Protein backbone atom coordinates (compact mmCIF):
# COMPACT_ATOMS: atom_id res chain seq x y z
CA UNK A 1 0.00 0.00 0.00
CA UNK A 2 2.79 2.42 0.85
CA UNK A 3 4.38 1.86 -2.54
CA UNK A 4 1.11 2.61 -4.36
CA UNK A 5 0.60 5.81 -2.39
CA UNK A 6 4.21 6.79 -2.95
CA UNK A 7 3.92 6.16 -6.68
CA UNK A 8 0.81 8.33 -6.94
CA UNK A 9 2.40 11.14 -4.94
CA UNK A 10 5.44 11.06 -7.17
CA UNK A 11 3.26 11.17 -10.25
CA UNK A 12 1.49 14.30 -9.00
CA UNK A 13 4.88 15.88 -8.22
CA UNK A 14 6.15 15.04 -11.70
CA UNK A 15 3.04 16.41 -13.40
CA UNK A 16 3.56 19.66 -11.52
CA UNK A 17 6.94 20.00 -13.13
CA UNK A 18 6.84 20.21 -16.94
CA UNK A 19 10.50 19.37 -17.25
CA UNK A 20 9.91 15.96 -15.70
CA UNK A 21 6.55 15.02 -17.24
CA UNK A 22 8.30 12.86 -19.84
CA UNK A 23 9.01 10.33 -17.09
CA UNK A 24 5.30 9.61 -16.73
CA UNK A 25 4.65 9.45 -20.47
CA UNK A 26 7.71 7.40 -21.35
CA UNK A 27 6.73 4.71 -18.87
CA UNK A 28 3.63 3.99 -20.97
CA UNK A 29 5.33 3.53 -24.37
CA UNK A 30 7.03 0.76 -26.33
CA UNK A 31 10.68 1.44 -27.11
CA UNK A 32 13.49 0.84 -29.49
CA UNK A 33 16.66 -0.46 -27.70
CA UNK A 34 18.00 3.09 -27.41
CA UNK A 35 14.70 4.36 -26.05
CA UNK A 36 14.56 1.43 -23.65
CA UNK A 37 17.94 2.38 -22.17
CA UNK A 38 16.79 5.99 -21.78
CA UNK A 39 13.57 4.83 -20.17
CA UNK A 40 15.50 2.57 -17.79
CA UNK A 41 17.69 5.53 -16.85
CA UNK A 42 14.65 7.72 -16.16
CA UNK A 43 13.07 4.89 -14.20
CA UNK A 44 16.17 4.68 -12.03
CA UNK A 45 15.99 8.43 -11.47
CA UNK A 46 12.34 8.13 -10.50
CA UNK A 47 13.04 5.29 -8.06
CA UNK A 48 15.95 7.25 -6.61
CA UNK A 49 13.64 10.24 -6.10
CA UNK A 50 11.15 7.94 -4.40
CA UNK A 51 13.80 6.63 -2.04
CA UNK A 52 14.86 10.17 -1.21
CA UNK A 53 11.24 11.11 -0.41
CA UNK A 54 10.81 7.98 1.72
CA UNK A 55 14.08 8.65 3.49
CA UNK A 56 12.97 12.18 4.30
CA UNK A 57 9.72 10.91 5.78
CA UNK A 58 11.19 8.05 7.83
CA UNK A 59 14.72 9.12 8.73
CA UNK A 60 14.91 12.84 7.84
CA UNK A 61 17.65 12.10 5.30
CA UNK A 62 17.80 11.65 1.52
CA UNK A 63 19.90 8.45 1.64
CA UNK A 64 17.81 6.08 3.78
CA UNK A 65 20.08 3.11 3.12
CA UNK A 66 22.92 4.95 4.88
CA UNK A 67 20.79 5.18 8.04
CA UNK A 68 21.88 1.62 8.81
CA UNK A 69 25.59 2.24 8.15
CA UNK A 70 26.67 2.14 11.82
CA UNK A 71 25.19 -1.37 12.09
CA UNK A 72 26.46 -2.49 8.67
CA UNK A 73 29.94 -1.23 9.45
CA UNK A 74 30.13 -3.53 12.44
CA UNK A 75 28.90 -6.53 10.45
CA UNK A 76 30.90 -5.91 7.26
CA UNK A 77 32.48 -2.50 6.46
CA UNK A 78 32.16 -3.26 2.74
CA UNK A 79 28.34 -2.99 3.04
CA UNK A 80 28.39 0.70 4.01
CA UNK A 81 26.20 2.85 1.71
CA UNK A 82 27.06 6.48 2.49
CA UNK A 83 30.35 6.18 0.60
CA UNK A 84 32.10 3.52 -1.48
CA UNK A 85 34.20 1.40 0.90
CA UNK A 86 37.55 0.07 -0.24
CA UNK A 87 39.43 -2.66 1.60
CA UNK A 88 43.22 -2.52 1.90
CA UNK A 89 44.49 -5.72 0.28
CA UNK A 90 48.20 -5.16 0.84
CA UNK A 91 50.79 -2.42 1.30
CA UNK A 92 54.03 -2.16 -0.66
CA UNK A 93 57.06 -0.10 0.39
CA UNK A 94 58.24 1.96 -2.60
CA UNK A 95 60.88 4.13 -0.92
CA UNK A 96 61.79 5.10 2.65
CA UNK A 97 58.87 7.59 2.73
CA UNK A 98 56.44 6.26 0.10
CA UNK A 99 54.02 3.33 0.19
CA UNK A 100 51.63 1.87 -2.36
CA UNK A 101 48.24 0.87 -0.95
CA UNK A 102 46.48 -1.82 -2.98
CA UNK A 103 42.73 -1.30 -2.52
CA UNK A 104 39.69 -3.36 -3.46
CA UNK A 105 36.68 -1.01 -3.78
CA UNK A 106 33.11 -2.25 -3.54
CA UNK A 107 31.83 -3.38 -6.93
CA UNK A 108 29.51 -0.39 -7.24
CA UNK A 109 32.50 1.95 -7.69
CA UNK A 110 32.43 3.42 -11.21
CA UNK A 111 36.12 3.08 -12.11
CA UNK A 112 38.49 5.67 -13.56
CA UNK A 113 40.62 6.84 -16.47
CA UNK A 114 44.41 6.88 -16.39
CA UNK A 115 45.68 10.07 -14.73
CA UNK A 116 42.61 10.81 -12.61
CA UNK A 117 42.36 11.47 -8.86
CA UNK A 118 40.08 10.26 -6.08
CA UNK A 119 39.03 11.64 -2.73
CA UNK A 120 39.46 9.29 0.20
CA UNK A 121 37.96 9.59 3.66
CA UNK A 122 39.46 8.10 6.80
CA UNK A 123 38.38 8.30 10.43
CA UNK A 124 41.28 9.52 12.58
CA UNK A 125 40.57 9.78 16.30
CA UNK A 126 36.84 9.94 15.61
CA UNK A 127 37.09 12.71 13.00
CA UNK A 128 36.52 11.97 9.33
CA UNK A 129 39.36 13.34 7.21
CA UNK A 130 39.25 13.81 3.43
CA UNK A 131 42.20 14.01 1.09
CA UNK A 132 42.80 13.78 -2.66
CA UNK A 133 45.33 11.42 -4.26
CA UNK A 134 46.14 10.30 -7.80
CA UNK A 135 45.58 6.69 -8.78
CA UNK A 136 48.90 5.08 -9.68
CA UNK A 137 47.57 1.90 -11.30
CA UNK A 138 46.24 1.47 -14.81
CA UNK A 139 42.45 1.12 -15.24
CA UNK A 140 43.07 -2.42 -16.50
CA UNK A 141 43.89 -3.52 -12.94
CA UNK A 142 40.41 -2.44 -11.85
CA UNK A 143 38.72 -4.03 -14.86
CA UNK A 144 40.60 -7.34 -14.58
CA UNK A 145 41.06 -7.79 -10.83
CA UNK A 146 38.80 -5.26 -9.10
CA UNK A 147 41.71 -3.47 -7.42
CA UNK A 148 43.38 -0.06 -7.67
CA UNK A 149 46.50 1.46 -6.14
CA UNK A 150 47.27 4.72 -4.37
CA UNK A 151 50.95 5.53 -4.03
CA UNK A 152 51.32 7.98 -1.16
CA UNK A 153 54.35 9.83 0.15
CA UNK A 154 54.64 10.65 3.84
CA UNK A 155 54.52 14.44 4.16
CA UNK A 156 56.31 16.09 7.10
CA UNK A 157 53.56 17.22 9.46
CA UNK A 158 50.84 15.76 7.23
CA UNK A 159 48.04 14.38 9.39
CA UNK A 160 46.53 11.91 6.93
CA UNK A 161 49.65 10.69 5.11
CA UNK A 162 51.47 10.04 8.38
CA UNK A 163 48.46 8.23 9.84
CA UNK A 164 48.16 6.05 6.76
CA UNK A 165 51.83 5.13 6.87
CA UNK A 166 51.81 4.40 10.60
CA UNK A 167 48.38 2.85 11.21
CA UNK A 168 46.63 1.67 8.05
CA UNK A 169 47.04 -2.08 7.55
CA UNK A 170 45.80 -4.88 5.31
CA UNK A 171 42.15 -5.65 6.04
CA UNK A 172 41.24 -2.08 7.00
CA UNK A 173 38.71 -0.10 4.97
CA UNK A 174 38.56 3.51 3.87
CA UNK A 175 36.07 5.57 1.89
CA UNK A 176 36.66 6.12 -1.81
CA UNK A 177 35.06 8.84 -3.92
CA UNK A 178 34.39 8.67 -7.64
CA UNK A 179 37.35 9.48 -9.87
CA UNK A 180 37.69 12.93 -11.43
CA UNK A 181 40.21 15.06 -13.30
CA UNK A 182 41.15 16.09 -16.85
CA UNK A 183 44.79 14.93 -16.77
CA UNK A 184 44.07 12.27 -19.41
CA UNK A 185 45.98 10.43 -22.13
CA UNK A 186 45.56 11.81 -25.67
CA UNK A 187 42.72 10.49 -27.80
CA UNK A 188 44.94 10.20 -30.88
CA UNK A 189 48.51 8.92 -31.16
CA UNK A 190 51.11 11.72 -31.09
CA UNK A 191 54.59 12.27 -29.56
CA UNK A 192 54.48 12.86 -25.80
CA UNK A 193 56.73 14.43 -23.18
CA UNK A 194 56.25 13.83 -19.47
CA UNK A 195 58.01 15.96 -16.84
CA UNK A 196 57.48 14.68 -13.30
CA UNK A 197 59.03 15.30 -9.91
CA UNK A 198 58.95 13.17 -6.76
CA UNK A 199 55.53 11.72 -6.03
CA UNK A 200 54.20 13.58 -9.08
CA UNK A 201 55.06 10.37 -10.91
CA UNK A 202 51.91 8.65 -9.61
CA UNK A 203 49.38 9.67 -12.30
CA UNK A 204 52.16 9.32 -14.89
CA UNK A 205 52.67 5.67 -13.89
CA UNK A 206 48.99 5.05 -14.55
CA UNK A 207 49.20 6.68 -17.97
CA UNK A 208 52.44 5.05 -19.08
CA UNK A 209 51.21 1.58 -18.16
CA UNK A 210 47.96 2.25 -20.02
CA UNK A 211 49.76 3.49 -23.14
CA UNK A 212 52.18 0.55 -23.14
CA UNK A 213 49.32 -1.95 -22.84
CA UNK A 214 47.68 -0.30 -25.87
CA UNK A 215 50.94 -0.65 -27.84
CA UNK A 216 51.23 3.12 -28.25
CA UNK A 217 53.72 3.61 -31.10
CA UNK A 218 54.40 7.36 -31.04
CA UNK A 219 57.57 8.34 -29.14
CA UNK A 220 57.15 8.98 -25.40
CA UNK A 221 59.83 10.66 -23.25
CA UNK A 222 59.77 10.84 -19.45
CA UNK A 223 62.00 13.28 -17.54
CA UNK A 224 61.68 12.22 -13.89
CA UNK A 225 63.35 14.31 -11.17
CA UNK A 226 64.06 12.75 -7.76
CA UNK A 227 66.35 13.70 -4.88
CA UNK A 228 68.46 10.53 -5.14
CA UNK A 229 68.24 7.22 -6.99
CA UNK A 230 66.85 5.70 -3.79
CA UNK A 231 63.85 8.02 -4.07
CA UNK A 232 62.56 6.66 -7.39
CA UNK A 233 58.88 5.81 -6.94
CA UNK A 234 57.69 2.90 -9.05
CA UNK A 235 61.25 2.04 -10.06
CA UNK A 236 60.48 -1.59 -10.90
CA UNK A 237 57.55 -0.62 -13.10
CA UNK A 238 59.45 2.19 -14.85
CA UNK A 239 62.47 0.06 -15.69
CA UNK A 240 60.24 -2.77 -16.87
CA UNK A 241 58.37 -0.38 -19.16
CA UNK A 242 61.64 0.91 -20.59
CA UNK A 243 62.78 -2.65 -21.30
CA UNK A 244 59.59 -3.92 -22.92
CA UNK A 245 58.09 -0.81 -24.54
CA UNK A 246 60.27 0.50 -27.39
CA UNK A 247 58.43 3.82 -27.63
CA UNK A 248 59.55 4.94 -24.16
CA UNK A 249 62.67 6.98 -23.43
CA UNK A 250 63.26 7.20 -19.67
CA UNK A 251 65.59 9.79 -18.14
CA UNK A 252 65.77 9.78 -14.33
CA UNK A 253 67.59 12.82 -12.92
CA UNK A 254 68.85 12.80 -9.31
CA UNK A 255 68.85 16.42 -8.17
CA UNK A 256 70.84 15.99 -4.93
CA UNK A 257 73.65 13.57 -5.84
CA UNK A 258 76.11 16.18 -7.08
CA UNK A 259 77.88 19.13 -5.48
CA UNK A 260 75.38 21.52 -7.06
CA UNK A 261 71.66 20.74 -7.27
CA UNK A 262 70.76 19.38 -10.71
CA UNK A 263 67.45 20.89 -11.80
CA UNK A 264 65.58 20.80 -15.10
CA UNK A 265 67.48 22.81 -17.69
CA UNK A 266 67.04 23.90 -21.27
CA UNK A 267 69.41 21.26 -22.61
CA UNK A 268 67.12 18.53 -21.22
CA UNK A 269 64.37 19.71 -23.54
CA UNK A 270 66.68 20.31 -26.47
CA UNK A 271 67.70 16.64 -26.32
CA UNK A 272 64.09 15.52 -26.80
CA UNK A 273 63.61 14.72 -30.51
CA UNK A 274 61.01 16.91 -32.23
CA UNK A 275 60.24 18.74 -28.99
CA UNK A 276 57.87 21.18 -30.72
CA UNK A 277 55.66 18.28 -31.87
CA UNK A 278 55.23 16.91 -28.35
CA UNK A 279 52.11 17.05 -26.23
CA UNK A 280 53.41 17.73 -22.71
CA UNK A 281 52.26 16.41 -19.33
CA UNK A 282 53.58 18.02 -16.14
CA UNK A 283 53.17 16.83 -12.57
CA UNK A 284 55.27 17.74 -9.56
CA UNK A 285 56.09 20.41 -7.00
CA UNK A 286 55.44 24.04 -7.86
CA UNK A 287 59.10 24.95 -8.37
CA UNK A 288 59.58 22.28 -11.01
CA UNK A 289 56.30 23.14 -12.71
CA UNK A 290 57.14 26.85 -12.89
CA UNK A 291 60.58 26.10 -14.32
CA UNK A 292 59.16 23.62 -16.83
CA UNK A 293 56.57 26.17 -17.93
CA UNK A 294 59.24 28.79 -18.59
CA UNK A 295 61.42 26.38 -20.55
CA UNK A 296 58.49 25.11 -22.62
CA UNK A 297 57.66 28.74 -23.44
CA UNK A 298 61.17 29.13 -24.85
CA UNK A 299 60.65 26.00 -26.95
CA UNK A 300 57.47 27.45 -28.39
CA UNK A 301 55.13 24.83 -26.89
CA UNK A 302 51.62 26.32 -26.92
CA UNK A 303 49.52 26.28 -23.76
CA UNK A 304 46.88 24.08 -25.39
CA UNK A 305 49.50 21.34 -25.77
CA UNK A 306 50.30 21.27 -22.05
CA UNK A 307 48.49 19.36 -19.32
CA UNK A 308 49.35 19.94 -15.67
CA UNK A 309 48.33 18.62 -12.30
CA UNK A 310 49.84 20.16 -9.17
CA UNK A 311 50.59 19.10 -5.62
CA UNK A 312 49.20 22.46 -4.52
CA UNK A 313 47.14 24.90 -6.51
CA UNK A 314 48.91 28.04 -7.67
CA UNK A 315 47.38 31.18 -6.18
CA UNK A 316 46.83 34.60 -7.65
CA UNK A 317 48.20 37.70 -5.93
CA UNK A 318 45.22 39.23 -4.13
CA UNK A 319 44.64 42.73 -2.80
CA UNK A 320 44.01 41.73 0.81
CA UNK A 321 42.99 45.29 1.75
CA UNK A 322 39.76 44.86 -0.24
CA UNK A 323 38.97 41.41 1.13
CA UNK A 324 37.02 40.19 4.12
CA UNK A 325 33.62 41.06 5.49
CA UNK A 326 30.62 39.68 7.32
CA UNK A 327 29.68 36.11 6.39
CA UNK A 328 26.18 34.76 7.02
CA UNK A 329 25.72 30.97 6.92
CA UNK A 330 21.98 30.94 6.31
CA UNK A 331 21.10 27.32 7.07
CA UNK A 332 22.97 27.45 10.36
CA UNK A 333 21.73 30.98 11.10
CA UNK A 334 25.28 31.90 12.01
CA UNK A 335 27.08 35.22 11.46
CA UNK A 336 30.86 35.54 11.53
CA UNK A 337 33.36 38.14 10.40
CA UNK A 338 36.42 37.57 8.26
CA UNK A 339 39.55 39.53 7.50
CA UNK A 340 42.18 39.16 4.82
CA UNK A 341 42.33 36.27 2.38
CA UNK A 342 40.81 33.43 4.43
CA UNK A 343 38.63 31.21 2.23
CA UNK A 344 35.05 30.39 3.13
CA UNK A 345 35.92 26.75 3.91
CA UNK A 346 38.40 27.82 6.59
CA UNK A 347 35.94 30.42 7.90
CA UNK A 348 33.17 27.83 8.18
CA UNK A 349 35.40 25.33 9.96
CA UNK A 350 36.61 28.00 12.39
CA UNK A 351 32.93 28.62 13.16
CA UNK A 352 32.58 24.90 14.08
CA UNK A 353 30.66 24.02 10.93
CA UNK A 354 31.48 20.86 9.00
CA UNK A 355 31.03 21.54 5.28
CA UNK A 356 31.83 18.80 2.81
CA UNK A 357 35.21 19.09 1.11
CA UNK A 358 37.80 17.03 -0.72
CA UNK A 359 41.00 18.35 -2.26
CA UNK A 360 40.90 21.87 -0.73
CA UNK A 361 42.59 23.09 -3.94
CA UNK A 362 39.68 23.91 -6.23
CA UNK A 363 39.97 20.70 -8.23
CA UNK A 364 37.32 18.24 -7.09
CA UNK A 365 34.30 20.54 -6.49
CA UNK A 366 33.27 18.52 -3.42
CA UNK A 367 32.88 21.76 -1.44
CA UNK A 368 30.59 23.47 -3.97
CA UNK A 369 27.91 25.49 -2.21
CA UNK A 370 25.29 28.09 -3.15
CA UNK A 371 26.08 31.75 -2.53
CA UNK A 372 22.82 33.69 -2.36
CA UNK A 373 24.25 37.20 -2.13
CA UNK A 374 27.53 39.09 -1.99
CA UNK A 375 30.81 38.91 -3.87
CA UNK A 376 33.70 36.46 -3.50
CA UNK A 377 37.13 36.39 -5.12
CA UNK A 378 38.55 33.21 -6.64
CA UNK A 379 41.88 32.68 -4.91
CA UNK A 380 43.30 30.83 -7.93
CA UNK A 381 42.38 33.32 -10.66
CA UNK A 382 41.91 36.55 -8.72
CA UNK A 383 38.56 37.10 -10.47
CA UNK A 384 35.52 38.39 -8.59
CA UNK A 385 32.14 36.72 -8.75
CA UNK A 386 28.87 38.46 -9.48
CA UNK A 387 26.85 39.82 -6.55
CA UNK A 388 23.90 37.46 -6.96
CA UNK A 389 23.05 33.80 -6.50
CA UNK A 390 25.51 31.23 -7.87
CA UNK A 391 27.41 28.09 -6.93
CA UNK A 392 30.91 28.65 -5.58
CA UNK A 393 33.72 26.47 -4.25
CA UNK A 394 34.26 27.15 -0.57
CA UNK A 395 37.93 26.15 -0.64
CA UNK A 396 38.97 28.88 -3.11
CA UNK A 397 36.40 31.62 -2.44
CA UNK A 398 37.43 34.66 -0.39
CA UNK A 399 34.72 37.11 0.78
CA UNK A 400 34.87 40.60 -0.68
CA UNK A 401 32.37 42.38 1.52
CA UNK A 402 29.22 40.85 3.10
CA UNK A 403 28.39 37.36 1.80
CA UNK A 404 25.54 34.94 2.46
CA UNK A 405 26.11 31.23 1.86
CA UNK A 406 23.64 28.33 2.11
CA UNK A 407 25.46 26.33 4.78
Structural description of this entry:
The protein is of the alpha/beta class. Helix content is 29%, strand content 28%. The protein contains eleven helices and 16 strands. It has helices spanning 2-15, 21-26, 33-59, 69-75, 139-145, 159-167, 201-213, 235-244, 266-270, 286-298, 344-350; strands spanning 84-95, 98-105, 117-124, 127-134, 148-153, 173-176, 192-197, 220-226, 248-254, 279-284, 306-310, 324-329, 334-339, 368-378, 390-393, 397-405. It has a six-stranded antiparallel β-sheet with strand order 4-3-6-1-2-5. Residues 1-47 and 53-62 have low confidence and may be disordered.
Produce a short descriptive summary.
It is built from 11 helices and 16 strands. The protein is an alpha/beta fold. The longest helix has 27 residues.
**Which structural category do the helix and sheet elements fall into?**
alpha/beta
Number of strands: 16
Q: What's the alpha carbon Rg, rounded to whole Å? A: 24 Å
Poorly predicted sequence stretches spanning 5 or more consecutive residues = 1-47, 53-62
State the distance separating the first and last CA atoms.
37 Å
Text of the CATH class of the largest domain: Alpha Beta
**Nearest-integer average pLDDT:** 82
